[in-house]
Design goal:
The chain is of the alpha/beta class. 52% of the residues lie in helices and 15% in strands.
């Protein structure tokens, strides 16, 4: 059980003082009687007087408890959907920085992916980033907001292994689907199609055997364009060159991408300025057979203030009925009873109003209308400022609008007042926001806190590894990725701290190695 307004509980300190007040009032009354009678009277309390005092004290006691709004019993809304598992693979190789499309290939691809996610109502979405290697950036989820967060973090050169390997992207995506299923699987590749590693045919055969349908979206122009090497301020320093000194010209390989798609029953689309190809592609995908998906969301505690309020009213009625002189009820007593009876109306209306606004915010959030969701959550907080779920929802809506600072502060307030389940979710989402802000150290700390509360959360473990790797120098991220421990079915608190220590020790060792080999031979591999 929790209290939505625990500040009212401080009024309970007044209850013993109220009891002392009644006892002192009884003594004063007894002295007055002694003065009138002229002799000492024994200090006795009649049963009827004791019951009346207890009724008054009980009324105040349970009235305070009702005002504090006790809550228990969580209500979980389960949303049933029909959809498919859709994994989006984004090429983050250096060639995606070419500006033969506006503003460049990578940003154009990210815009198209956002459009695709918006259209994917009911589908589970996953995100893979790839260049010379590939990794799952966002596991399959119905939380489209999380997919947006990871998409925003995608950038050229984010994967240590250079080059472009379509086979790695296809194999990684095939492994990320539910293995036992032979349908409901769609992979969409956003790439310029240049494959520098080979092995695509075998990867496509494996995907087709697993029931994966591949759609490809080509980004760029068939004519090609030289790949610039840019400075930090965006200026062109030089152009990328082959090992023989010739300038690299990156071209869109439409034939290769069309062959990949058609061999698995999918289709190839070329990215255009209007983005009409995304609508056409999803219209084609939506015709595929769908499966039943469900997700449990919007956990809320149920208000139970009605029970202590009803007890308080009963105490008031009993105290008014039990009279030492058995006199009929006065107008004042009837008025107090009426006031107590209507006390439930504002509290009940306020509770329903806050819950209704919260539900409105949840609906807006699910539709991607984060500004409207923020407004609804703020209005709900005005009616119920102490409810931790509202702070959590508000923080998420702010983060989706890239208002990371206010969003993280709202999540921190939810951590201070919420239960363990809400704290774990708040730490996880705060870690994602901090990662997008570039504060990888604080992001890692947040994911560790989330793991302490739920050691079995594999998503938090995966994100922790990403944050720790992002802290390392780019020159030795590859060896760290190769030595990354395999996923476990359970992750203990001690392992979370040990993982942090192990990677820090590895970073120190790598620094020693780099000092010993300052001069490194130039690579003869194609790295764009």
């Amino acid at each position: 059980m929790i209290f939505a307004r625990p500040d009212y509980l401080h009024l309970l300190w007044a209850v013993p003082f109220l009891a002392l007040f009644f006892y002192r009032s009884f003594l004063v009354r007894r002295r007055r009687l002694e003065t009138m009678v002229g002799t000492a009277l024994p200090i006795t309390l009649t049963g009827r007087a004791v019951i009346r005092v207890l009724c008054v004290i009980g009324f105040f006691l349970f009235g305070i408890l009702a005002a504090a709004r006790p809550q228990w019993g969580q209500k979980t809304e389960t949303v049933h959907r029909r959809g498919i598992d859709l994994i989006i693979a984004l090429d983050t190789s250096y060639s995606m920085g070419a500006d033969d499309v506006v503003p460049n290939r990578l940003e154009k691809a990210k815009t198209a992916i956002k459009d695709l996610i918006k259209r994917s109502e009911g589908d589970r979405i996953g995100l893979i980033a790839f260049s010379g290697g590939a990794f799952v950036q966002c596991p399959l989820t119905l939380d489209y907001g999380a997919a947006y967060l990871f998409l925003e973090a995608a950038a050229s050169g984010m994967i240590p292994e250079p080059g472009t390997s379509l086979s790695s992207a296809i194999r990684t995506a095939t492994a990320a689907f539910v293995e036992k299923e032979t349908k409901y699987k769609v992979l969409v590749l956003f790439t310029d199609g240049e494959d520098l590693k080979g092995g695509v045919d075998n990867a496509v055969r494996e995907a087709r055997k697993a029931g994966v349908v591949i759609y490809t979206v080509g980004i760029g122009s068939p004519e090609g364009i030289p790949l610039p090497v840019r400075s930090l301020d965006g200026g062109i320093l030089d152009y990328r060159k082959r090992p023989d000194g010739k300038v690299v010209v990156s071209r869109l390989d439409e034939n290769g991408l069309a062959e990949i798609a058609e061999s698995t029953g999918g289709r190839y689309f070329r990215a255009t300025a209007s983005g009409a190809e995304i609508a056409a592609m999803y219209d084609d995908i939506s015709r595929l057979e769908k499966k039943e998906l469900e997700s449990s969301i919007f956990r809320n505690y149920e208000d139970r203030f009605q029970y202590p309020l009803a007890i308080a009213v009963l105490f008031l009625v009993a105290g008014s009925w039990i009279s030492e002189s058995r006199r009929p009820w006065t107008g004042r007593q009837i008025g107090l009873l009426a006031v107590a009876a209507v006390m439930a109306l504002p509290a009940s209306a306020s509770s329903r109003s806050a819950a209704a606004k919260n539900n409105d915010g949840n609906s807006y959030f699910a539709e991607g209308k984060y500004v409207d969701a923020e407004r609804a959550y703020m209005e709900a907080r005005e009616r119920d400022p102490r409810r931790p779920e509202l702070l959590y929802n508000l923080g998420n809506s702010l983060i989706r609008q890239k208002k990371y600072g206010p969003g993280i502060r709202a999540l921190q307030q939810a951590i201070e007042t919420g239960d363990d389940a809400l704290k774990q979710k708040s730490w996880f989402n705060a870690g994602c926001a901090l990662f997008l802000m570039g504060d990888y150290e604080a992001s890692a700390d947040a994911f560790i806190e989330a793991l302490k509360l739920d050691p079995s959360d594999l998503d938090a473990k995966h994100n922790l590894e990403m944050a720790l790797q992002a802290k390392q120098p780019a020159s030795h991220k590859q060896e760290s990725a190769d030595s990354r421990p395999p996923q476990q079915t359970r992750f203990t608190r001690e392992q979370a701290a040990q993982l942090l220590d192990a990677i820090q020790e590895q970073e120190t060792e790598e620094q020693r190695r780099l000092i010993q080999r300052r001069v490194r031979p130039a690579s003869n591999e194609r790295d764009w």
